[in-house]
Amino acid sequence: MIYIDPNILEKVNTWLTPTFDKDTQAKIKEMIARDPDGLEDSFYKSLAFGTGGMRGVMGVGDNRINKYTLGKNTQGISNYLKTQFPSDTLKVAIAYDCRHNSKELAQVVADVFSANGIEVYLFTDLRPTPELSFAVKHLDCHCGIVLTASHNPPEYNGYKVYWQDGGQLVPPQDGAIINIINALDYSEINFNGDASLITGIDQEIDDAFAAASLKNGCKVKDNSLRENLKVVFTSLHGTSITMIPRVLKDAGYTNVSIVKEQEAPDGDFPTVVSPNPEEPEALSMAIALANKEGADIVIGIDPDCDRLGIAVRDADGHMTIINGNQAMAIKTYFLLAQLKEQNALNPKHFIASTIVSTPMIKKIAEKFGVIYKEGLTGFKWIAKMVEDFPELDLVGGGEESFGYMVGDFVRDKDAVTATLLACEIAAIEKENGNTLLDYFNNIQEEFGYYQEQLLSIVKKGKKGAEEIAQILKQLRENPFTEINGSKVIRIEDYLTSEAKDTVKNTVDKIEVPKSNVLIYYTEDGSKIAARPSGTEPKIKFYLSVTTDKKNDATLVLDNKIKGIKKQLNLN
Q: Is 150 a catalytic residue?
């Protein structure tokens, strides 16, 4: 006899009632008979909002993405909107990416909103996530939804929620909505959509978004520089194909080659191991095309078009990938340098980054005399800064995971405008006989040599979640006193909101929202952050080191990685 945990069985039995369709019930019965482990993973918890919204494997159950979990979310948001805007005609915008079932799930979400008397603006085909953020503000919507799982594997999908400002949900709205959702029964979802309240949107928003991207991203005065830059672009089978080629063409880039094998949107992502531009393998086909055509720069975008991968030529002519921290430093320095050159810098300008990103950004902001603000991981916190400090002007914001936004016309990472900006800088540098890599090396000569790397440990399923929790518990209860020979001098625990100076033995309060993040600072200037991913079954270690010499930084970083693996028994 197959044993099923009573708590899980109670949830399973709920899904075997007439509230759920026959196909769903049949799949559950099949799992009971043949896949008890899969049944446990599907029901042992309910999907929750993380740093990037709700994301998970598609399938049946509370811990899966399906019409019922998304329908419940949408019903809860509908109820919340009515309490917050009782006298308004409520409006929402909905977009979706290339994932399997995204279009169908987007229609389900539209039906639930409209069934609740809410006007819906629905993109009729796949569109970039930053365009949804833009559309929320452009159409004066009360909130927005995008169906996407970003760069996760093909079996994933997700549900991001945006508020009136175009930024993702943050406290207190997220907690209030989650409480309403959790209190709902699946039988309370109204799936009976009202087609008269659903309006298809496409070209009007495309045109407005493209115009805004060009306005914020174009920095080159001489169009011949753009014509001279050879660009290779890959959409990695995602949504960026609908917007980036257009924006580059409109800007004046006439020498753009697209990786044809990766041009068509495809939720299976058949030509890559992972559609994540953070992974070097994802850019391999584009780099091969760049070498064949003698291109200057490679641009690779993740499926929902918010992360940007870049490769340029090094001193020996080989294509080299620029990581997220390096790209963020290049763009930030360039934007501030241009403002300074135009005598346009003012005390109200600020730069934004995150607690796990390179410390170099703070140094750059200080050099130009602008305000530096740092938030938790996720662009929703950068968007919140814009709302919390309306008297300030955001120049640019970024994080280590290949995300950047230029200005605040979009309130999320925006690979469309970031691509245009990267090409603008590359075009200027090519005219001067340099590349983006040369530009970054000049920045390092000014601020020191920084090396960063992300160490991700994958732990899938219920057991994996428990192992991740145990690693973080160990790091808190038995903190490192040294890491690979360098003494730990400061520990920041964002879950307890305490920062401990281990030299002075003093404790300060951290003035940001609580989050399950630990950061260690060592005597040699290294920074090591640990956090569980909010969207994937991983624990992530963000490592940053700095030295006066470039080669030394690489050696120090390698040793730190070895030290952490050894101290956590991860070898």
A: yes
